[in-house]
Each structure stands twice: as C-alpha cells, then as structure tokens.
Known about the structure:
Helices cover about 40% and strands about 20% of the residues. By secondary structure, it is an alpha/beta fold. It starts with a strand and ends in an 8-residue tail after the last helix. The strands form three sheets. Strands 3-2-1-4-5-6-10 form a seven-stranded parallel sheet, sandwiched between helices. Strands 7-9-11 form a three-stranded mixed sheet. Helix 2 links the parallel strand 2 and strand 3.
Amino acid sequence: MRVFxxxxxxxxxxxxVPELGAAGHQVVGxxxxxxxxxxxxxxxxxxxxxxMTDLAAMGDAARDADAVVxxxxxxxxxxxxESVAEDAALIAAFGDALEGSGKPFTIASGTPVIPGQIATExxxxxxxxxxxxRDDNGYAVLAxxxxxxxxxxxxxxxxxxxxxxxxxxITRLVELARTSGVSGYVDDGSQRWPAVHVRDAxxxxxxxLERAEPGTMLHAVGDEGVRTRxxxxxxxxxxxxxxxxxxxxxxxxxxxxxxxxQPASAELTRRLLGWEPTHPSxxxxxxxxxxxxxx
Length: 295
C-alpha cells in the first residue's frame, strides 16, 4: 500500500516508517519543516511539504494514498482545546477525502483513565476530563466506518519508550531528578502507568492498517501498569540520586498525571490482531540506562 503518514518524522513515526517499509509498503510522509523533509528524504520517503492546517492539501494527500495514518498532534498543554479542535478539523477533512473508498484510516490517541479499574478498549474517557476531547476525536474516526472507511484508533499509553526517545514523560522525570537532586514520585508511588516500546507500537499501527475491521478501537499497551515509585527508584539508581515522595507541584504539568492510577489493558487488541509485544519493557529500558546514559 501507498501509506500517507502525518508525524512521519516524529517519535512514533520514526519507528513506523521502517516498519511499513519492511512490510513492503510505500510511505508518503508529511513534513512541516525543511529539517523534517530532509530526514524523511534520507529514508527514501516521498515527502508532502505542507502544514496540517492546510486541509485541502491534506485531503489531496489522502485521496492519492491507499491508506492514512494520522500520528501528528500538538501536545502544547497550554492550548489543548485549540489542538483538539484543529485535530477534529483535520479528521473531518480526511473523512471527506476517504469517504466510500474502503481505505484504511487509523489515528493515534491515548488510553483513558478509568478510576479504580484497568482501562480496556471498550472504555471511554470521562466527559470533561483532560483526555476527553482527544478521545471524542477518536470516536469520530470510528464513526467513519459508516461512511465506507476502514477506520481504527490506536490508543497509546503514558509512556512510549525506547532508545532515542527525547521528549516523553520519562525523559522529563529523568531531567527533574538530575536538576532537583531527588528522583521523586507522588503520594506513596503506587499509581500505575501503562507503557509500550515504540517499536511494538509501530507494529500495531501496521497491523491496524493491514487487518483491523472498520470501527475498531485498539490499545498499544505492553506493560499494563508500572508503579511510579518503581520508575523513580530505577531512575534514582541510574543517576545516583535519593528517591522520595514529592508534592505534585514539583513536577509541573506532570504532577496531575503522576497523581492518578491509570493502568490499561490490550487483551482485546491481542485477540483481534494477534499482536504481541516483543521488545524491552519500560523497566528493562530504565534498568539498562537507555534514558539516564544520555542526559
């Protein structure tokens, strides 16, 4: 298939591009900067040089492709509502371009927080929660199945880890431990974070394109829930920093996330697509120093 990918030069895209190529697919990547275009060209990826707000260009790229993967999202937490609205407009444009084609269209989203239980593919983010807007966009994608599009959503956990990751939550925790002198956690640290290796996530996106039925919700979860105190202890051991409970405000925007228990399951996804994570777990990556060695 000829696959148009937004976010092709980003963290997950950097794993998905070779995953698709190895499976015999041709990748067309969106580049919003010259640096991104250069990086994609070096991987023999055909480049669409445009901005995601150019909905006409995005629609043309979708019509020219056999499949679309939408990974890009503006994660500026100070303007999340605007980012969700921009994403909704782009999803609508893709829907119009792909309507009646039967082409696969999958997007990235996030696993929901379900108080007191492990979130599954059947759960929805609570209305009004920080994740609800993006989750609503995901369900809008699933609804495109009624318009003749083989739509699916891949929900990602809090940590998509691996060698070379530079902008995720774990990297931020390592930076905070170095600058503050303490590797911290919130409350008793029993809160759980789901996680997945970036290459396992890339495999799931490929499987979604190739085999998911229209209107399918999927979870790219390798670790259902790693306790945040264990994360802090592994970071502290690697950096030689003490480990201690810290108030949420010490972590900035991460404080609210660290305060919530938010495990998630991928049991249904594994049954549907036969997906099985094979790469290192989050704790294995931390214990191997793949984050602390380069910070």
